[in-house]
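dumping this here before i forget
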Amino acid sequence: MISSLYLTRNGLLEPLGQSQVFGYVRGLSRDYSITLITYEKSEDWADTAAIARAHADCAAHGIRWLPQRFRPHPKIISPALGMMRMMWLVRREVRREGIRLIHARSYIPAAVALVVSRMTGVPFLFDMRALWPEELITAGRLRRGSLIHSAIAGAERACLVKSAGVISLTHAAVKHLKSVYPRELANQRLVVIPTCADLDRFTPKAETRTGPTVHGCIGTVLSGWFRTDWLANWMRVAVARDPDARFEIVTRDDAQRVRAELDPTNELAGRLIIGPRPSKDMPDAVRGHDLSVMFYAGGEISELGRSPTRMAEVLGCGLPVVANEGVGDVADIVRKNNVGVIVEGASVQQMGTAFDALQNLMKDPDLPSRCRATAEAVFSLETGTQAYREIYASILNMKDA
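structure:
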């Protein structure tokens, strides 16, 4: 089989690594001999049993897994040293394993792949995910027009131009990129593959859940681009309209910081649960909710490229979503398929209007099946994997021509 290398700074042991990395490479391993390089966080690296299980899972699918330590400190030096180590590692594997395609997930891996591609002639796929420079600006971690921003934007342009193909999560991001780089992308291979979910794992509840309504929220909320103020207002309105309402934030974020953002006076106490879940338990965690809330910094350029992982998983479990405008293709998908509500603003009145609309929607007996059908049509892991197979084949056939 043809050898390819999949490079990501995410950890395989993270929930995202399991759903958005392993889910795809597992499917691709049927057609390609894959070397997988990931960067594992300290707490995951320390879990020797989980590391052993991941090695076994990879071996069962013929995947060579080369886990690396994720080193975030010191902040200034670590990224530069990390890129140099990554570059050496990727070049070594390309030479040693006869790699014919590098699949670079996100910007830093793509920058590394660009350099190695120039050294070796091996093409790379820029799987850009979201619009990372704009996300950093939205989060207040990067100033537009600064030297660092100019360097990152220059790397973005080079990766878009020099890659053998580009993957975007949303149609909204593609439209934006074509407006920014009209000449550069005129002949580029651009494919939209939204964040997909393993719908064999994320399935609806076998029986209708009873008891108080549980409002779920999954993933990081302290990223800088999640609207915790909107989520806090939603919770206040929900409590006022439904005194029995419960809330669960499934996140690896620091629980005390999250509570300080959402419920600083501890009024909700035990009605608000905050904490992580292992990847294997995530389907049950989602099925324990009645709906899922996701508010991002909509309206910012950064959000045009966002395709929330949680949305695919939540819909797969037959649950509706509560979201906001200006986040990738989210509002279009929700409205077109009637699988949730879009909140128009952060005010109590606007939250109340959305809450009432959701209550009416949840009376529809067809809602769970409609949510599931939407997940299957838009976010199927098999559909996404097939799209990757097609672009792999297209790149390799072009190279061999």
